[in-house]
Amino acid sequence: MMLGDKNKDNCLQICSQIQICSQITKKRSTDQLRPHLSRHNLYKTHPPPFNMDLRSLKKEIDALPNAKILCRTFQEQWLKPIRVESNHHLPFLQHLSPAAKKEANVKLKECASLLTAISYGATLQQKLRRYGSLAFDLKLNLLRHDQRKSKLIISNVIHDESLNIKSTIKEVQQFAEHVQELASCYQAVNSLLQQELSLEDSLVFFDSSHKKYLTQLQRLAREQKRLLREVGEQFIVLTKEKKW
Q: What is the pLDDT of residue 119?
């Protein structure tokens, strides 16, 4: 295979994977849309310009909040399974009817499992940081005409077992789905408590800051999708520009 063909093949693989990443976002702005890609059809239009420089992109990725800390704080501020020794900050929960406690605990157990899964998003954020660094390194090595290092970076992004971007796209989507399920579970528990609690107790419970941390998790899910798409587009442009 000629080097030019390898260049096209690498570009197509990254483009196809990033196209999937674009499809998992609901927003459909012009710069997110991609023309149809096939093995014999590159972009028919010019590739999208950089939406941000690499330094800004790395700063945004580094500024993402830690998913594990958000999950822990959310659970501390909200509810644990309702038992005699739990939720001391909400003593009125002990006065719930046995049926309400049972129903709430089923949902809270489900929420706890989701929070455990979402906590693993901290490793996903490490991957995003790694991609930001690799994109920056790729740009530098292309400027230095270092083909060996440039090819190694591209190979890692496409083929590496733990770092390939295709698996990361799936992880980002799974993270977002778990957060969405958590929000539904959260709403179900809150609706149940609203029916059971007195007005005074409801005001105390719903005036807490737990909603803020769920909102931050939802924002994090959206930001991870956007930033993965952004860093992927950086790789697309850099891969198409190399002249091997």
A: 93
pLDDT digits (tens, 9 = 90+) for 3-51: 455 555 555 555 555 554 544 443 432 233 243 223 333 233 344 444 4
Q: Is 224:124 a contact under the CB 8 Å cutoff?
A: yes
Chain mean position to CA 196: 35
15 in Cβ contact with 169 (< 8 Å)? no
Q: According to DSSP H, which parts of 33-97 are helical? A: 54-62, 67-77
Summarize pLDDT for 54-113 with one digit per residue, the tens. 888 889 999 999 999 999 999 888 888 888 878 888 888 888 889 999 999 999 999 999
Residue 37's CB is within 10 A of a number of other CB atoms, namely: 17
Q: What's the Cα-to-Cα distance from 47 to each of 9, 26, 94, 139, 170, rounded to whole Å?
A: 16, 21, 60, 17, 24
Q: Which pair of tokens denotes residue 98?
A: 């046995």
Burial class (CB within 10 angstroms; exposed 0-12, middle 13-18, buried 19+) of 179: buried
Task: Evaluate whether 21 touches 173 at the Cβ level (below 8 Å).
Answer: no
Residue 41, classed as helix, strand or coil, is: strand
Q: Where are the domains of the chain?
A: 54-234
Instruction: Report the sign of the C-alpha dihedral through residues 114, 120, 124, 126, in that order.
Output: positive
- The pTM assigned to this predicted structure is 0.76
